[in-house]
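Reply to dn_fold:

You asked what the input looked like. This is it:
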Amino acid sequence: MAISLSVVVLLAIVLVVMIRSGSIKTGPAIVAALFGFFVASTDMAPSINRFLNSISETISQINL
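and this is what came back:
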């Protein structure tokens, strides 16, 4: 839960920065956000969640 919440906050910050810098307009940003919202309600959501969890676990196991 904490990882998904922090990812949402990070992506929201990136989206706001991209809108303010002019690299993405408000319309496409809204479409992208709605796309993500609707993908989350499909049968693909658990697979995407498992994929992101495996990536975060892999990153956390990296020893520098």
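The longest helix spans residues 2-21.
Hope that clears it up.
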